[in-house]
Amino acid sequence: MVDSEFDVVVRVLDGRAVLAVKGDVDAYTGPNLTECLAAAVDETDGDVTLDMSGVSFIDSTGIAILVATAKQLRQRGNELVVDSPPRMVAKVLEMTGVTKLVRLEQSSR
Questions:
Q1: Is 1 inside any structural domain?
Q2: Who contacts 54 (Cβ-Cβ below 8 Å, separation ≥6)?
Q3: Which of 40, 65, 102, 105 yields a CA-CA distance of 20 to 30 A from 75?
């Protein structure tokens, strides 16, 4: 079995929150991610970036969290940026239409 330990590290840089996510984003870990994203949205007035380079899997719960957060940020004129998702995660985001609500980036890390 693959180790899918979940972790979120939050940094705030120049009014912009950056959350580095590691592990599976699913029904089990979703509440933790939701809590971290809600705090980031509340504590900053800029865009929110999710560094998903460490995400190994995302299910419908994770998709719903991204959609809800993106809509909340859009209401205040900001956006959710999904940075460096692995190929399979990016494919899920594209197939489900999430990429119409979020901006995908590929950072050179």
A1: no
A2: 7, 20, 21, 22, 23
A3: 105
2 located within any domain: no
Is residue 69 assigned to a domain?
yes
Domain count, the chain: 1
Contacts of 80 (CB under 8 A, 6+ apart): 47, 48, 49, 50, 66, 69, 70, 73, 101, 102, 103
Give residue 43's domain range.
7-105
83 in a structural domain:
yes
Enter the pTM of the model.
Answer: 0.90
pLDDT digits (tens, 9 = 90+) for 12-62: 888 889 999 999 999 999 999 999 999 999 988 899 999 999 999 999 999
**Token digits for 86?**
């692995």
Instruction: Say which residue the tokens 């999430």 belong to.
Output: 98
